[in-house]
Amino acid sequence: MSVRGVLVLLLSLYLIVGSVHSQGSPQDSFIIQYLERRLSQMEERMNQCEQKTVGVTQKTYDLSSEIRGYLSSLNVLRSEVQSEVDSVSARVDRVERELEYLENKIPTQTDIEMEEALLEQQIKAAEVDLLKKKAKIKVEKDCSIGLSQIKSLKIVKKAGDTYGSWFKDPSQGSAKVYLLSGIRNNTLLEYDSLHSFTETNTTTPVKVVQLPFHWMGSGQVVYNGFLYYHKADTPNQILKVDLLNGTVVDSTLVPGAGRLPVYSLNLNTYLDMAVDELGLWVIHADPEYGGNLVITKLDKGSLAVEYTWDTQCRSRDAEGAFLICGTLYVVYNTRYGGRSTIQCLYDIHDTIHSDESPVMFFPKRYTSHSSIHYHPGDKKLYAWDDGYQTIYKVETRRNDQLTKE
Description:
This is Olfactomedin-like domain-containing protein. The chain is of the alpha+beta class. The chain is about 35% helix and about 30% strand. The mean pLDDT is about 85.
């Protein structure tokens, strides 16, 4: 029933009740009361219906608003999907074009065979070139001697810090002595001779050379009037400095070096330069080779790498090393300081072997070394021993005599 019908019905009942009420009989009074109760019930139901109608109308409005929101989000999502589809379509087109290009560029089987043959020739040529370099190093000089023993010890002087290096220029005819104190500095002291270095009241003035860059560690050498050292704050850069004017004339980066100290008992040195009868070397430790030592032959003029050898000598418990005639001798000790020993060697000529050589002891003195440099002319080791400048006299023999012992 509609609301209008309900209102008409109520009006009719009201008129009937009024008419009956005017007649005033008891039966009519009962009927009036009944009709009044029915009217009250109908009014209550109409109120409830009206409330429910309002609630449904509100819910319908809320649902409509929610649907409109979903439709808006759906439109945004549809736009994004369309954009992605367009992007994927563009990528597919590009991939198709690239595949078509690659199909046109794929070489034939004949071309592949020719390229493989060319690559094989290049590899063989590189191997031959390396063999020639090794042969050149071996035959350039008659270098067939090795260390047989360390004979004597001489403490020359105590000067400078606990760590440092000192040495003579191994160039023929040079008697100059050089001192570099500390593990990081840029001041080099030059003496005319060993005598002027040992004399405290010498009349010969000391030449002070200010280097353009600080050094790092204690692995420096002087060769033909040039200082070679590890530049501070760089992992593996070596500088070549002319000591006449203190300027850098060349530099190089040692491949694979500078990632860990070259000796575990000398934690401040990452590159250790060395000179022997064959020329200029650099020693470093390689973490990818188990921390073992690696030796690299450098051209003293251009600093170009001539060849590199991986050795079986460990850096752990090592305090220093030096080369004699292309053979690396590694010096070991304890972290508390003790009697230094040579327990490992590596010969690039493969004529003497570490497992066939006895352990060699330094003269009986319990200490530690921050640097050890071999002088091929004097056949002596110049070592820095807790601030003491020390010289060890060594004895060498031909390799064929060493192998017979």
